[in-house]
UniProtKB/TrEMBL annotation:
This is Carbohydrate ABC transporter permease. It is found in: Cell membrane. It comes from Massilia atriviolacea. The keyword Zinc does not apply. It comes from the Bacteria. One of its GO terms (cellular component) is plasma membrane. SUPFAM superfamilies: MetI-like. It is a multi-pass membrane protein. Residues 80-272 form the ABC transmembrane type-1 domain. GO terms for biological process: transmembrane transport. The chain crosses the membrane at residues 12-33, 84-108, 115-136, 142-167, 188-211, 250-271. It holds the Pfam family BPD_transp_1.
Length: 287
């Protein structure tokens, strides 16, 4: 016999809070979606919550390949491929180096490991705005300022403390006997890492990848300063589209461009959300 759910005041309050929170986040998305498929004649009527009377996908096409940013009218398509070129190495390299660092700090305990870990902890909480000017000077000295390697290097620098912290805490939960057994079998530093630790690291790798991809993809300030005009990411192109002073303000195109820019992080969260929770539960914040 099934038990009936008891809707006491506490349960009703929880559901009311969840419904309010969902509406708070979904209402702006609804406005963006319906505005992006309306012609400008309907938008000028002022009813932002009304469904479109005349459905059109021309704003999406214009946002992708025809929106103007000053004298150029190429949309945000170029910014998309620039973001891909920036995000892929800025995710793979910090995760690989952070995993090696976390593995070393958890099992091999080199001299000064605690000091190094403390420095990395401090680095994780330094505001990036404080480091912008010194990095501009350093990258300019080495001739990589405003280039693709320059912006990738900057993302690596800011990601390294967090990636090392994540993997160090994850590996701290691995039984030390497993590491000792691999040492007895003759495994060295990289052999144990590649054949023992790395295959066990899928949950935390997914967590790190989600954090890094969304952080790099959504970044604006670092891309604006360090990427240069030829490598401007999608967020910079979006800002140029929305804030252009050429012609009239096309709100439907602006909304479509905003949704296109956010599709990759949204898709990653929807597809990998279960893995993210599993990685957190497996020790991503433990240690």
């Amino acid at each position: 016999m099934k038990r009936r759910a008891h809707f006491n005041p506490a349960r009703i309050g929880i559901y009311a809070f969840l419904l309010t929170a969902a509406l708070f986040f979904l209402l702006p998305l609804y406005v963006m979606l319906v505005t992006s498929v309306k012609p400008m004649e309907e938008i000028r009527l002022g009813n932002i919550f009304a469904l479109p009377l005349q459905l059109t996908f021309a704003p999406w096409r214009d946002a992708w390949s025809g929106a103007c940013t000053g004298a150029s009218c190429e949309g945000i398509r170029g910014g998309f491929w620039n973001s891909v070129a920036i995000t892929v190495p800025s995710t793979v390299l910090p995760i690989l180096i952070g995993a090696i660092n976390g593995y070393a700090l958890s099992f091999w305990k080199p001299r000064g490991a605690q000091l190094l870990f403390g420095v990395l902890m401090v680095g994780a909480f330094i505001p990036l705005q404080v480091m912008i000017y010194p990095l501009v000077r350093v990258l300019g000295t080495f001739g990589v300022f405003g280039s693709l390697p320059g912006i990738v290097l900057v993302h690596m620098i800011f990601a390294m403390p967090v990636m090392t912290l994540l993997f160090r805490n994850y590996y701290a939960g691995v039984p030390h006997e497993l590491f000792q057994a691999a040492r007895i079998d003759g495994g060295g530093f990289f052999r144990i890492f590649a054949h023992v630790m790395l295959p066990m690291s899928l949950p935390i790798i997914v967590v790190a990848a989600i954090m890094q991809v969304t952080g790099v993809w959504n970044d604006y300030i670092l891309g604006l300063v360090f990427a240069g005009r030829d490598n401007a990411p999608m967020t910079v192109q979006l800002n140029n589209v929305i804030n252009t002073t050429t012609g009239t303000r096309l709100y439907n195109v602006n909304m479509a461009a905003t949704i296109l820019t956010s599709l990759v992080p949204l898709a990653i969260y929807f597809i990998s959300g279960r893995w993210f929770v599993r990685g957190i539960a497996a020790g991503a914040v433990k240690g």
